[in-house]
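Example (one chain per record):
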Amino acid sequence: MKETFPVMKEKILEVWVQPRASRSEIVGYRDQFLHLRVTAPPVEGEANQSVIKLIAQALGIPPSRVEILKGGRGRRKKVRVLEVPLRNWEKLENMKREAPKSQKPGEA
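Predicted structure:
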């Protein structure tokens, strides 16, 4: 029998994206935003697809469980993730606890 793990049904993430970065990565949290860098340009949805893939990979879920709800044409986005194993979600939440509080998205 397949072992089951506790799963978070749904979560909305506030994301800030830097397109055309030198590498795709999750930088961490700055204020309430999850700061991401993606190598794709913000042309024809390429950066959005990279965001979906990056979040899905980080949470260990298929990209079909990640959806951009708002901000498809901007840097600030609302992203919904579905059915995330809690152990994977905790890794992302640990980044939030370690994040500096004073810096805003877009500031160096």
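Caption: Residues 46-59 form the longest helix (14 residues).
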